[in-house]
Amino acid sequence: MVLDRVRQWLLGAPGMAEVESLAVDYYPAEPGNGSIGPAGLTEVARREDVLGNVAVEQTMSFQVSFVMVKDESDDALATRNAQWLLDLQRWVQAQSLGRLAPTFGDLPRREWVRAEDGALKEVSQEGTAVYAVRLTFGFIKMYEVM
Fold it and tell me: By three-state DSSP, how is residue 51 classified?
């Protein structure tokens, strides 16, 4: 299953030992919890050869959120949280370039993954914050004429 593959891969990222759970589409609002949810599948391009076989270039996105401790008066803690999110995005990039990320298409050497738009999304009065990043996988599916 796609979500399980992405979740298992993400749990191997540096710093993920602090994440106790990475649920689908839901997270308890306590530090150490996270969520991964589908954010859409998009057809980017479609090419047909002379035999009618079709190559469909697609992207598949996920919204990944993490609940972390946040104290508005503690700049060191805020800096650590922000650095962790940047490090996660760099790890995803390195995994993609090293061809270590999950693949979903028919041409694995042409696949890629990006972690973008990592940012603080909301802060609660209870001292927690939700940080999120968008993961996008690019791949090509091949469809042959019967």
Answer: coil
